[in-house]
Design a protein that fits this description.
Layout lengths: L23 E4 L5 H11 L3 E6 L10 H5 L3 E5 L5 H12 L3 E4 L5 H4 L4 H7 L4 E4 L17 H8 L7 H6 L10 H24 L3 E4 L2 H8 L1 H4 L1 E3 L8 H12 L7 H4 L7 E5 L5 E5 L4 H10 L3 H6 L30 H15 L4 H11 L3 E3 L3 H5 L2 H6 L2 E6 L3 E6 L4 E2 L3 H4 L3 E2 L7 H9 L28 E4 L5 H11 L3 E6 L7 H11 L4 E5 L4 H13 L2 E5 L2 H6 L4 H7 L4 E6 L16 H8 L1 H6 L15 H22 L4 E5 H7 L24 E3 L2 E6 L2 E6 L5 H8 L7 H5 L4 H10 L3 E4 L3 H6 L10 E4 L7 E5 L5 E2 L17 H7 L4 H9 L3 E2 L10
Parallel strand pairs: 1-2, 1-4, 2-3, 4-5, 5-6, 11-14, 15-16, 15-18, 16-17, 18-19, 19-20
Antiparallel strand pairs: 6-27, 7-26, 8-9, 9-10, 11-12, 13-20, 17-28, 21-22, 22-23, 23-24, 25-26
Length: 838
C-alpha cells in the first residue's frame, strides 16, 4: 500500500470539520498560560471569546498578538456589576472557561467554579494559577514566570556544563511553566469535553503552573539508587572527581568540549558555524555517521570495542572493554580520538551542507541557528510551523503555527487571519449572547442533574498501542494512561537503543503501561501486530512520514485493519504542511540547535549549550501529542471519523520561545537575556545574591516607589549591594510584605529529597520496592487536578517484556501458540536477565 502523502491525502473540507468546531471557550487569561491554552483550542476551530480588562491586554508585547489570534475580543471590567453579569451570561452558553488568576480571585468576583458550574453544569472550568490553591507556602504569591521557575529549581544547576563552570544560578528566559501548563490545561479541557456526556457534566480542573513545570522537568529530578556507574558520562565523572577531591568547579567553555561525547556534541564546519550531532545510544545512527565520514572501518581496524548485546551487565563484558561503539557514553579511551577524526571531516563542508547530507541519509544532526534565523528559514515557513496573522498596527506578524493538529487541516490551521483589537467584537458577542444558547459539542443530550458527583477517568475504556521510544513518544501514552486509557507498549525483541535511553528514561515514561516485545519483521510478529491494531483505539508512533511508510504503519494501512483507529504521529521537524526537512530525523537537542535555544542559552553561535535539562522540548511535545489525540477522539465521537493526530518537537520548541518567537516589518531587535552569566531581565526581574545564597525578585515598574522605600535604596543599581547585607529570607519576607514577588531559588534535588508537599504544588513518589530492585524517586504526575474526574493511579514501569505472555493470551493465543512464538523469536519476554543492567 502506498504511503500516505499529506499533499494528496483527504483534507477536512470546511472549518466545521475541525475537531473543536461547535465548542465555545471563554478566555479570561492574561500574560501567557491562559491565553496560550485558549489559543490552542482556537487554532482547532473553537469559538474563543477573549476577555480583556479596561486598557487591553496586561502584557504589552507583540506576543499578545500571537496569543489572541482567531479569538473574538471584548473588554469587561470585572469589578463592575454590569460587566460581571455579562461574563456570567457568556459562561452560561460556554463549553470551556479558562482563567489564570491567583487562587480565589474569580471566586471573590462571583465568577468562581461553584457559581458558574451551578449556572451551567456542562461547563469545563479550567484554572491555571501559578501555584496550587492548596499550597500554603507559595499559593498567595504573585506567580510570575521567573518566580515559579526559581521556586521549582529550574534556575539551579542548569545542566552539567553550568555545574562544571561553577555558574549557579543561571537565568533562562524560556517560558517553560506557562508552556507546560497551557498544553496540559488544553489537553485536560478536551478530555473532559470527550467524557462530558457519559460522566454527567463538566468539571473544575486546576493546573498549577509550578506543578506543570515539575512534570516537564521530571527526567531531571528522578533518582535511581544505586545508579550504575556505566551510565555516568565523562562530565558526570568529572563532577564526581572534583567533588571528592575538593576541587573547584571552574572549567571554561573550551575545556568542557573535551568532556562531551563524540556522538553527542557540536562540531565547527567550513563556514565556522557549529553543527550538532546526536547519534549516541542508537546502533544504526552511529554506524551511519561513521560510514558517511569514512571512519567506521578504520576505527574497527584500530580495535575500537564493539558489543553485540548492549544489555549485558558490565561484569560480563570482555576483558579490558569499558564500553562500546555507539553505547552511551563512548569509552573514555576512545572518545577524544573519535571526536578528533569526526571534527576534521566536518571542517570540509559548511554546516548547512552537512544538514542536507545528514537529512538525506537519515542521520540525526542539525546546523545551529539563532532564533531570528529560524524565523526566516525555508523549512518552517513551507511546513506551516511558522504562520502569519495580520495586526492593525504591525501588519503581518510571523509567529509559531499550531502546537497540535489533525492531518489534513493545514488550509485552516495555517491560514492568515486578522487579530481583533480589544473590544473589537463587543457588538457581535453581545448580540449573539442575546440569541438562544449555542449548540454544545455534546453528542448525547443534556447531562444528568447531578454534575458534581465523582466521575470515572475521562478516557476509561480507551485502548492505546504505544510504538514509541525515548521520551516524547512515551509521554503521550503516559498522559492518556493517567486519564484512564489502557496502554500496551510494543517494543522490538532486539532494541535499537541502549539501556540508558530505554530503561532509565522508561522508569518515568512507561508508568502505568504493560510491555510486549515483538519482532515485526517476522510473520508471527506481523500477526501479533494486526491483532493489536484491531484492538486499539489509538496507535502512537514517533517517526517521520517516510519512516512509517517503510514500516507499513500509515494511517491508511492501520485503518484498513481497524477503521476506528486513530494514529497519533509525532516527529522532529514536521508541520501541518510538507516542508523540505519534514522527514529529517531528530531529537530534542537538535530542535534546540535549529530554533536558536542553544545559541541563546550558551550566549552565541560560537558557544552553544543544550538548555539546562533533559527533555526541555521532549516532554512538551509528548503533551502536545496527547492534546492532538484528545482532539481526534472528540472529533471521532462527534463525526464517527478516525483522524491522524499530529505534533512535533519543532512546534513545541517554538512555544517555549513565544516571548521572542515573532517577526514583523520594523521589529526592533530582541533583547532577551542570554548566556551563562544571565541573571534576569533587569533590576526588577532577576536573581539576587543575599548573604547566605540566592533568591529571585519580580516586581512591576509601578511597584518601584514602595519597593525602594521598603528596602532602603534610592536607585535600582543599588539593589545588588543592598541585598548582600542580609540573609535571603530576611529580604523575601520584606518584599512579600510589599506584595512583591520574591522566592528562594530552590532545587529539583531538594524538592525530591523532601518528597515535595502533599498539599502543595510539588509532589514526588518514592518506590522502595520498585520492580527494578532499585530505590526510585520520581516527580508525581499531579499537575492536572480535576474536582470530579478520578485520574488513574499509575503502577511503576514494569520490566520490558513482562506482560508478553499475558497480552498474547488476551489477544486469543493459546499456551502452545505462545511457546511457538517465543521459540521462533517472534516475541520475547525480556532484553536482559536484569531490569537495569549494571
Amino acid at each position: 500500500m502506498k504511503a500516505e502523502n499529506p499533499r494528496t491525502s483527504p483534507v477536512h473540507r470546511t472549518s466545521e470539520d475541525l475537531p473543536l468546531a461547535h465548542v465555545r471557550v471563554l478566555d479570561f487569561g492574561q500574560y501567557i498560560a491562559g491565553p496560550a491554552a485558549a489559543m490552542m483550542l482556537a487554532d482547532q476551530g473553537a469559538e474563543v471569546i477573549h476577555i480583556d480588562p479596561p486598557g487591553g491586554p496586561r502584557w504589552d508585547s507583540p506576543a499578545a498578538i500571537v496569543l489572541n489570534r482567531r479569538k473574538k475580543c471584548i473588554v469587561l471590567d470585572l469589578k463592575d456589576a454590569g460587566d460581571r453579569e455579562i461574563a456570567r451570561k457568556l459562561a452560561a452558553t460556554s463549553d470551556v472557561l479558562i482563567e489564570n488568576f491567583r487562587p480565589g480571585v474569580m471566586t471573590r468576583l462571583g465568577l468562581g467554579p461553584d457559581v458558574l458550574r451551578a449556572l451551567n453544569p456542562s461547563l469545563v472550568y479550567v484554572s491555571l494559577p501559578g501555584f496550587a490553591s492548596t499550597d500554603r507556602e507559595f499559593g498567595a504569591l504573585p506567580a510570575w514566570e521567573g518566580i515559579i521557575a526559581a521556586a521549582a529549581g529550574q534556575f539551579n544547576d542548569m545542566g552539567l556544563n553550568r555545574v562544571l563552570m561553577g555558574i549557579n544560578p543561571s537565568f533562562s528566559p524560556l517560558c517553560l511553566p506557562s508552556a507546560y501548563g497551557a498544553v496540559l490545561a488544553a489537553t485536560a479541557a478536551v478530555a473532559a469535553l470527550y467524557a462530558r456526556d457519559s460522566n454527567g457534566g463538566g468539571d473544575h480542573i486546576e493546573v498549577p503552573l509550578a506543578a506543570a513545570l515539575m512534570e516537564g522537568l521530571a527526567y531531571n529530578s528522578m533518582r535511581i539508587d544505586p545508579y550504575p556507574e556505566r551510565y555516568h558520562s565523562l562530565r558526570e565523572r568529572e563532577i564526581a572527581r572534583r567533588r571528592a577531591a575538593g576541587l573547584p568547579m571552574n572549567m571554561n567553555y573550551a575545556d568542557l568540549q573535551e568532556l562531551l561525547d563524540p556522538f553527542y556534541r557540536s562540531y565547527l564546519c567550513a563556514n565556522d558555524r557549529p553543527f550538532y550531532v546526536v547519534c549516541s545510544s542508537h546502533r544504526e545512527h552511529v554506524r551511519k555517521l561513521l560510514v558517511l565520514m569514512g571512519l567506521l572501518e578504520p576505527l574497527r581496524a584500530s580495535g575500537v570495542p564493539e558489543l553485540d548485546d548492549w544489555y549485558l551487565p558490565r561484569a560480563e563484558w570482555p576483558d579490558g572493554v569499558d564500553g562500546a561503539l555507539g553505547l552511551y557514553p563512548t569509552p573514555p579511551a576512545w572518545a577524544a580520538r573519535i571526536a578528533e577524526d569526526i571534527a576534521a571531516r566536518f571542517r570540509t563542508k559548511t554546516s548547512f551542507e552537512w544538514e542536507e547530507i545528514f537529512g538525506a541519509a537519515g542521520i540525526p544532526g542539525a546546523a545551529h541557528r539563532l532564533t531570528d534565523e529560524w524565523l526566516q528559514s525555508t523549512h518552517p515557513l513551507e511546513a506551516g510551523l511558522l504562520i502569519a496573522t495580520r495586526d492593525r498596527e504591525r501588519g503581518l506578524v510571523r509567529q509559531p503555527g499550531p502546537l497540535a493538529w489533525l492531518q489534513g487541516t493545514a488550509e485552516f490551521v495555517t491560514a492568515t487571519t486578522a487579530v481583533s483589537p480589544p473590544d473589537g467584537d463587543r457588538a457581535a458577542i453581545l448580540a449573539k449572547d442575546a440569541a438562544p444558547p449555542i449548540a454544545k459539542a455534546s453528542t448525547a443530550g443534556s447531562p444528568p442533574a447531578d454534575s458534581n458527583r465523582e466521575s470515572p477517568p475521562w478516557f476509561a475504556g480507551i485502548r492505546v498501542l504505544d510504538l514509541t521510544n525515548v521520551i516524547a513518544g512515551p509521554t503521550i501514552s503516559a498522559l492518556l494512561a493517567r486519564f484512564g486509557a489502557e496502554v500496551i507498549n510494543l517494543d522490538p525483541v532486539r532494541p535499537a537503543f541502549d539501556p540508558w535511553c530505554t530503561i532509565v528514561f522508561g522508569m518515568h515514561g512507561n508508568q502505568g503501561k504493560r510491555s510486549l516485545l515483538c519482532d515485526l519483521k517476522s510473520a508471527g510478529g506481523q500477526e501479533v501486530l494486526r491483532r493489536l491494531l484491531a484492538w486499539a483505539d489509538v496507535v502512537t508512533i514517533n517517526a517521520s512520514e517516510r519512516q512509517i511508510a517503510g514500516l507499513h504503519l500509515t494511517a491508511a494501512e492501520i485503518q484498513a485493519i481497524n477503521p476506528r483507529a486513530i494514529l497519533c504521529r509525532i516527529d522532529a521537524f514536521g508541520g501541518p504542511r510538507p516542508g523540505p526537512h519534514s522527514d529529517y530525523p531528530g531529537y530534542d537537542d537538535l530542535v534546540q540547535a535549529s530554533t536558536g535555544i542553544m545559541a541563546r542559552f550558551g550566549g552565541s553561535l560560537a558557544t552553544p549549550e543544550e538548555h539546562a535539562h533533559v527533555g526541555t522540548i521532549d516532554v512538551l511535545c509528548g503533551f502536545c501529542g496527547a492534546l492532538s489525540t484528545a482532539m481526534a477522539l472528540l472529533h471521532r465521537q462527534r463525526s464517527g471519523k478516525a483522524s491522524t493526530a499530529r505534533a512535533s518537537l519543532a512546534a513545541a520548541g517554538q512555544l517555549i520561545q513565544l516571548p521572542f518567537m515573532f517577526d514583523f516589518a520594523g521589529r526592533p531587535p530582541h533583547d532577551e537575556p542570554r548566556g551563562p552569566q544571565a541573571k534576569g531581565y533587569g533590576p526588577l526581574y532577576r536573581c539576587y545574591e543575599a548573604s547566605d545564597g540566592w533568591f529571585f525578585l519580580a516586581a512591576k515598574p509601578t511597584q518601584w516607589t514602595a519597593l525602594s522605600r521598603g528596602i532602603g535604596v534610592d536607585a535600582p543599581d543599588q539593589l545588588l549591594q543592598r541585598f548582600r547585607n542580609a540573609p535571603r529570607q530576611h529580604w523575601i519576607d520584606r518584599l512579600r510584605a510589599l506584595d512583591v514577588g520574591a522566592v528562594d531559588i530552590g532545587s529539583l534535588a531538594a524538592w525530591r529529597a523532601r518528597m515535595g508537599d502533599a498539599d502543595g504544588s510539588f509532589q514526588f513518589c518514592r518506590y522502595d520496592a520498585h520492580p527494578s530492585g532499585h530505590v526510585v524517586e520520581l516527580a508525581a504526575p499531579n499537575a492536572i487536578r480535576p474536582a470530579r474526574a478520578r485520574l488513574a493511579p499509575l503502577a511503576p514501569a514494569e520490566k520490558y517484556g513482562a506482560s508478553t505472555r499475558a497480552v498474547l493470551a488476551e489477544l486469543g493465543y493459546g499456551a502452545a501458540d505462545v511457546e511457538n512464538l517465543l521459540g521462533v523469536g517472534a516475541v520475547a519476554e525480556s532484553w536482559s536477565r536484569h531490569y537495569l543492567p549494571g
